[in-house]
Amino acid sequence: MSSFAKTKLKAARDALGKKKYEAARDAASQVLDYEPENYNAHVFLGLAFLELGQHDKSEQVKLLHIFRAWMR
């Protein structure tokens, strides 16, 4: 995992803890742009969407991760 991803994941985790869900969504999305298979980024993105009331997107993130794991 790159230092970029580690930094952004930490930012996403911290933002979730502070209930700054838009910032968490943005940081997790940036990790996935760089590392599309990053498990933690998928989890943080799904949680951010869930807390933002975007349940459909949260479910899509979950299903995408399951599908990618199945395709390995």
From TrEMBL:
Pfam families: TPR_16. One of its GO terms (biological process) is RNA catabolic process. It comes from the Eukaryota. Keywords: Repeat, TPR repeat. GO terms for cellular component: Ski complex. InterPro entries: Ski3/TTC37 (IPR039226), TPR-like_helical_dom_sf (IPR011990). SUPFAM superfamilies: TPR-like (SSF48452). PANTHER family: SUPERKILLER 3 PROTEIN-RELATED (PTHR15704), SUPERKILLER COMPLEX PROTEIN 3 (PTHR15704:SF7). This is Unplaced genomic scaffold scaffold_48, whole genome shotgun sequence. It comes from Paxillus rubicundulus Ve08.2h10.
